[in-house]
Design a protein that fits this description.
The complex is a heterodimer of chains A (500) and B (513). Chain A is 43% helix and 13% strand. With 500 residues, chain A is an alpha/beta fold. In chain A, the strands form four sheets. In chain A, strands 1-14-13-12-15-16 form a six-stranded mixed β-sheet, sandwiched between helices. Chain A is globular and about 70 Å long. Helices cover 48% and strands 12% of the residues of chain B. In chain B, helix 8 packs across helix 10. Chain B is globular. Classes of the chains: A alpha/beta (500), B alpha/beta (513). At the A-B interface, helix 3, helix 4, strand 5, helix 5 and helix 6 of A face helix 2, helix 3, helix 4, strand 1 and helix 6 of B. Strand 5 of chain A pairs antiparallel with strand 1 of chain B, so a sheet runs across the interface. Chain B: Belongs to the NifD/NifK/NifE/NifN family.
């Protein structure tokens, strides 16, 4: 149900020109390469038609002083990849702040007894003091591991998430990890995700993937009876329960999800992953590395899929089923048919309330492209999108989603985003907590697209209903019509629509 | 199929539906390799014991669920209290994303700050180039009146020198030579966010006051609030009181408007804050008062060095603490405390008297920054409550001694214990072994509430999971009324919940309490 539309490329080109004119020359020259307008692609046809080309530079250093929205490698490892592994203790190794600010903020849902056999919403830190910087923290790390073993004996492993100072003072967290792993007979994973490494969260994902390869795979005999329909879900962090709303569908079509990385995951699910038949990757950006490794080393095939919105869910389910043959394909058609009434009901309820509304996105990982069709399923139009930490291959993939004339911004700065939003005046912005309040002050509805604004799940059919409801309540709330004091200007005619 | 378009289930009810329950149970059984239930239960019970508490409190290296953040957060907050000031944090960029998110999540407001975005090459060669380019970009893009520079631990470990770097940047015309770029070194591995606040504030005062001639204006007062998540409500309340007294004062570091901008269609990157001219003029004040002693130790020393009289308070909240503040202000300014304020005081006392029977003898655990904990313990004792556990992860031995002295001064403090440097996992053991009626802290306390069943009252930064509390004052007599009401609501809500079983406790479910 692809929506046909084209965006105002001329307006977008003018906006880009305007923001660039405000920078010092050197910075303008650098920023220019990150901003563009999607152009109609030459390649057409095939299964996944390329709609446009999004030609921007990406994955390079942010410019100092411009208010990049990016995070760091630690955020990519502890915050994204490792943090959700629930039965391991993740030590934020270094000063107190990094662990404190990332504590419980990503909404990686899990089931377990927190503090006893699961540790997801806890903040373990080595709370580095000056003496640790001067004399090194390796001894302290040893003692920390001892204390973890004493107080949390049911942990199934430990990771050491290095913060900036660790790499600078030359601590040998690998040696400590090796020694203590031997002593306790447990998996201990040092992750060299110091925040200054790389240019964004992205290198942290890569380093975290490599740590799985180097410190988890092939370290233990994994007793597991593999089945013909075993799959791993890779790159679903179970934000607001996303992975659960996905798993239920995969199980319904007859697959066995033997591991979910890394939302609601246990170490066991990571260890056995190479025994699966297929890796299903949702967040390509953060976990493609380990999928490529599993393909090369263990022959596990991988494929990308998209569980946002019914159009993509159907296509993805069919693609996944094709991999397993007629039996699964048949079940898949039944599942699609089963959910069709729900999809139709959600769309007929919300599409009339949202039709034609414009959306600007600025997110990380997979979402700047993956969520586009979900909005379009509701009749909405994507006018701009961009990645915090995307690479060239992300922008290539984005071409399959965005329409001609769409405004594309890589590693956008606070200034640019504000000016773009002001110039475009979309009906909705989907971005993060740092962007939420400035946008709302302008009177533009906003949804956080990292945390689902404390809602979710948004994956799967169950999630799509929630997504549609959330978009509706954001756009159609009456507060947006109250911004102007009536004695200053005539209030706009009511456009809010009461919830049904 | 649990979901329907008519009644859309959110995550909480959705995952309680039978389909999901079964799915999760099977996931656990077949794929998670869990510990046997009995072992988990036993360990859970063990964590409630004195034996576990002793092990837990004996920890020397591991910190779990601390109630403190790192220095630069305090520096960024401090800078937000000055007119059109942009925080520039020199070091890794991820840190700045964290500070901004952390402040936004609490205030539900924009929080601006920029980074010099240092990466591996800067770790080797130093971050001078990043600072030089960064200041130029910030100056041009964000049109600030002042750029306040602080540091992340990366820049501190490699030893970047802000003073000479900023000089260099000015030599290279990143910003005009006379543009104000105060700075503070704020290593995350020393102290906590309250020290970062102190450092940045001192840096700003030094920048404007150093080498200037001071001509004392008798009776004029500077007020420094300290790191305060309730600055929006508190600062406005304090200014109201000072205005009522007719005092000549400068509120130094006032983030109340910055973190409470209106929604009227315009995004204000900067709003309110102490004007730069006011900061310059504040040198001439007769005295500087700090509302949070442990947030401003270095700053107050500096104020003393320039010749000002100084005095500090511990988050003046409740009756006697407010009395002391007002009397001090009165003594310095020569202005009398007006009758209207005396009546306000009387109204707070009136409310406390009305409710005293519900508060007398209640036991509390209190945690947060040192001055806040001191203040709450004091107010709790004024209501006849007993502050059983007083914990500050960033509390020093000096704080411990001072608080113990306060507790010893009241019969309600005789059983109180002070826990300096301990964290919230230690608090968990304390609440299991020596339970209390109420827990006062911030949003992180919700895990303690869940695990131990102790009702949590959110009264200090950060509050992420309740909205708008920070917009109301806690300080002063009016603030005391707010704190009192908040505590009472928690008590009454609990009582109602515990007596609301029809056919069982109809008798205690009183209409009037």
């Amino acid at each position: 149900m692809s929506l046909e539309y084209e965006n105002d490329g001329a307006l977008h080109a003018k906006l880009i020109e305007e923001v660039l004119s405000q920078y010092p020359d050197k910075a303008a020259k650098r920023r220019k390469k990150h901003l563009s307008i999607a152009k109609s692609g030459d390649e057409a046809g095939g299964e996944s038609e390329i709609l446009s080309e999004c030609d921007v530079k990406s994955n390079i250093k942010s410019i100092p002083g411009v208010m990049t929205i990016r995070g760091c490698a630690y955020a990519g490892s502890k915050g994204v990849v490792w943090g959700p592994v629930k039965d391991m203790v993740h030590i934020s190794h270094g000063p107190v702040g990094c662990g404190q600010y990332s504590w419980s903020q990503r909404r990686n849902y899990y089931v377990g007894t927190t503090g006893i056999d699961t540790f997801g919403t806890m903040q373990f830190t080595s709370d580095f003091q000056e003496k640790d910087i001067v004399f090194g923290g390796d001894k302290k790390l040893e003692q920390i591991i001892d204390e973890i073993e004493m107080l949390f004996p049911l942990n199934n492993g430990i990771t050491v998430q290095s913060e900036c100072p660790i790499g600078l003072i030359g601590d040998d967290t690998e040696a400590v990890s090796r020694k203590k792993a031997k002593e306790y007979g447990k998996t201990i994973v040092p992750v060299r995700c110091e925040g200054f490494r790389g240019v964004s969260q992205s290198l942290g994902h890569h380093i975290a993937n490599d740590a799985i390869r180097d410190w988890v795979f092939d370290k233990k005999d994994v007793e597991f009876e593999a089945g013909a329909y075993d799959v791993n879900v890779i790159g679903d962090y179970n934000i607001g329960g996303d992975a659960w709303a996905s798993r239920i569908l995969l199980e319904e079509i007859g697959l066995r999800v033997v591991g979910n990385w890394s939302g609601d995951a246990t170490l066991a699910e990571i260890e056995r992953a190479p025994k699966a038949k297929l890796n299903l990757i949702h967040c390509y950006r953060s976990m493609n590395y380990i999928c490529r490794h599993m393909e090369e080393k263990y022959g596990v095939a991988w494929m990308e899929y998209n569980f946002f919105g019914p159009s993509q869910i159907e296509t993805s389910l069919r693609n996944i089923a094709k991999h397993f043959g007629p039996e699964i394909e048949e079940k898949t058609e039944k599942v699609i048919a089963k959910y069709r009434p729900l999809v139709d009901a959600v769309i007929s309820k919300y599409r009339p309330r949202l039709e034609g509304n414009t959306v600007m996105l600025y997110v990380g990982g997979l979402r700047p492209r993956h969520v586009i069709t979900a909005y379009e399923d509701l009749g909405m139009v994507i006018v701009g999108t961009g990645y915090e930490f995307g690479h060239n291959d992300d922008y290539q993939r984005t071409g399959h989603y965005v329409k001609n004339g769409t405004l594309i911004y890589d590693d956008v700065t606070g200034y640019e985003l504000e000016k773009f939003i002001e110039g475009v005046r979309p009906n909705l912005v989907g971005s993060g907590i740092k962007e939420k309040y400035p946008v709302q002050k302008m009177g533009i509805p906003f949804r956080q697209m990292h945390s689902w604004d404390y809602s979710g799940p948004y994956h799967g059919y169950d999630g799509f209903a929630i997504f549609a409801r959330d978009v509706d309540l954001a756009i159609n709330n009456p507060v947006w019509d109250l911004y102007q004091a009536p004695w200053k200007e005539r209030p706009p005619s009511g456009r809010a629509i009461a919830a049904e | 199929m649990p979901q329907s378009a008519e009644k859309i289930l959110d995550h909480a009810p959705l995952f309680r539906e039978p389909e999901y329950r079964q799915m999760l149970a099977e996931k656990k059984l077949h794929f998670e390799c869990p510990h046997p239930d009995q072992i988990v239960t036993d360990q859970g019970e063990f964590t409630k014991t004195w034996e576990y508490r002793e092990k837990n409190l004996a920890r020397e290296a591991l910190v779990i669920n601390p109630a403190k953040a790192c220095q630069p957060l305090g520096a960024v907050f401090a800078a937000a209290g000055f007119e059109r000031t942009m925080s520039f944090v020199h070091g890794s960029q991820g840190c700045v994303a964290y500070y901004r998110s952390h402040l936004s999540r609490h205030f539900k407001e924009p929080a601006s700050a920029v980074s010099s975005s240092m990466t591996e090459d800067a770790a080797v060669f130093g971050g001078l180039k990043n600072l030089v380019d960064g200041l130029a970009n910030t100056y041009q893009l964000y049109d600030p009146k002042m750029i306040a520079v602080s540091t992340t631990c990366m820049a501190e470990v490699i030893g970047d020198d802000l003073h000479s770097f900023i000089q260099n940047a000015k030599d290279e015309n990143s910003v005009p030579r006379d543009f104000d770029v105060p700075f503070a070194h704020t290593p995350a591995f020393v102290g906590s966010h309250i020290d970062g606040y102190d450092g940045m504030l001192k840096g700003i005062l030094e920048h404007f006051w150093k080498g200037q001639q001071r001509t004392e204006t008798k009776g004029s007062i500077n007020v420094i609030p300290g790191f305060d998540g309730f600055c929006v409500g508190n600062n406005r309340e304090l200014k109201r009181l000072l205005d009522m007294m007719g005092v000549s004062y400068t509120f130094i570091q006032d983030a109340s408007d910055q973190f409470d901008t209106p929604s009227d269609g315009e995004y204000r990157m900067y709003d309110g804050g102490t004007k730069i001219e006011e900061v310059r003029g504040a040198l001439d004040a007769e005295a500087t008062l700090s509302l949070q002693h442990y947030n401003t130790r270095k700053t107050l020393d500096y104020c003393g060095q320039v010749g000002q009289a100084t005095a500090s308070f511990h988050y003046p909240l409740g009756v006697q603490a407010t009395d002391e503040l007002l009397m001090k202000v009165s003594a310095i300014s020569g202005k009398e405390i007006p009758e209207a304020i005396r009546l306000e005081r009387g109204r707070l006392i009136d409310a406390m008297a009305d409710s005293q029977s519900w508060l007398h003898g209640k036991k509390y655990a209190i945690y947060g920054d040192p001055d806040f904990v001191y203040a709450m313990a004091r107010f709790v004792m004024e209501t006849g409550g007993e502050p059983t556990h007083c914990l500050a992860t960033n509390g020093t031995s000096a704080w411990e001694a001072e608080l113990k002295e306060l507790l010893a001064s009241s019969p309600f403090g005789k059983d109180a214990q002070v826990w300096a440097g301990k964290d919230l996992w230690a608090m968990r053991s304390l609440l299991f072994t020596e339970p209390v009626d109420l827990l006062i802290g911030n949003s992180y306390g919700k895990y303690l509430e869940r695990d131990t069943g102790t009702p949590l009252i959110r009264l200090t930064f950060p509050i992420f999971d309740r909205h708008h509390h920070h917009r109301f004052a806690l300080m002063g007599y009016q603030g005391g009324l707010r704190v009192l009401t908040t505590i009472l609501d928690k008590i009454f809500d609990k009582l109602d919940r515990e007596t609301s079983q029809t056919g069982v406790t109809d008798y205690s479910y009183d209409l009037t309490r």
